[in-house]
Amino acid sequence: MAIAATLMMLTRLNAVHALLYLIVSLLAIAVTFYIVGAPFVAALEVIIYAGAIMVLFVFVVMLLNLGRRAVDLERSWLTPGMWVGPVILAAILAGEFIYILAGRAPDSTMSGAIGPKQVGLAMYGPYLIGVELASMLLLGGLVGAYHLGYEYRGKAETQTHDVDTVHAGSDSGGDLVRAGYDRTAGAS
Amino acid sequence: MFALGTIGLLVRRNLLFILMSLEVMLNAAGLAFVVAGSRWAQADGQVVFIFILAMAAAEVSVGLALVLQLYHHYRTLDVDVVSRMRG
């Protein structure tokens, strides 16, 4: 399922079609996580990958497609042949998920189910130095993206974003990049 | 899936597709970690997957900023054109 969606992603010529198939692939991986017994990681996958990162990709694609080709692209997006494939794959995924929720609701057959509490205990226990390293990495990514957007824009604006946790750090990075692109799009 | 991501990285010459293939490869690695962690009923696999997620978020933000600046300079997304840059 995920492999099929990924193959379709690699063979598309248009970037938006590939993005749709990539989102379906991520959702398939999330369902696989849920089946395997990791519901917390499945929720994280949907929220961060299919939410934040895909929003960034879609935004850049839309920003790069400005100009005279945009009208033709818009016309070609409205044809039904292009979203039928992702809709079919996503419908299969939705059926799978409903089947799982309806069939095995009491969570008995999952042998190795690991809840969020165990993940949090393991993460802030022996892996505390890893959390610190991830926060430093996110801070570096934040500063790097802000620096690149700063040179591209050419104007000086100072903003303060603090990275306190892992997920808040990733979200603030995405917001910063998106805000910078917004200003460039408005200026040009 | 990791092999698919690698093939996409090598075959495509569009920067956006290269970034998407990188996402696929990171996802494949995270999937392997989570499956192994649930096989031995340990929470370590999911912890490592959260780290991979944070790294992917940082990498994608910096990568997309680079892509935008490259497009601003060269008006293309072909990496063969960009490989001739100097300075």
Which features does this protein show?
A: 188 residues, mainly alpha, 8 helices, flat, disordered C terminus, B: 87 residues, 4 helices, 80% helix, elongated
Tell me what you see in this structure.
The complex is a heterodimer of chains A (188) and B (87). The C terminus of chain A is likely disordered. Chain A contains eight helices and no strands. The longest helix of chain A has 26 residues. The N and C termini of chain A lie far apart (42 Å). By secondary structure, chain A is an all-alpha fold. In chain A, helix 1 packs antiparallel against helix 2. Chain B is an all-alpha fold and 87 residues long. In chain B, helix 2 packs antiparallel against helix 3. The N and C termini of chain B lie far apart (36 Å). The relative contact order of chain B is 0.14. The mean pLDDT of chain B is 73. The interface between A and B is large, with 66 and 52 residues.
Let me know the largest β-sheet of chain A. none
Overall form of chain A: flat
The total count of helices of chain A amounts to: 8
Question: Number of helical segments of chain B?
Answer: 4
- What best-fitting shape of chain B do the alpha-carbon axes yield? elongated
The ordered H/E elements of chain B are HHHH
What would you report as the Rg of chain B, rounded to the nearest angstrom?
16 Å
Helix content range of chain B = over 70%
Portion of residues within helices of chain A: over 70%
Radius of gyration of chain A: 20 Å
**Strand tally of chain A, please?**
0
Give the CA-CA distance, first to last residue of chain B: 36 Å
Provide the structure class of chain A. Answer: mainly alpha
Q: Got a strand count of chain B?
A: 0
Query: Would you identify the regions of chain A where 5 or more consecutive residues have pLDDT less than 50?
Result: 154-188
Strand content of chain A: under 5%
Mean pLDDT of chain A: 65
Q: What kind of assembly state do the chains in view correspond to?
A: heterodimer
Largest interface: A-B, 66 and 52 residues
What value does the average pLDDT of chain B take? 73
Low-confidence stretches of chain B: none
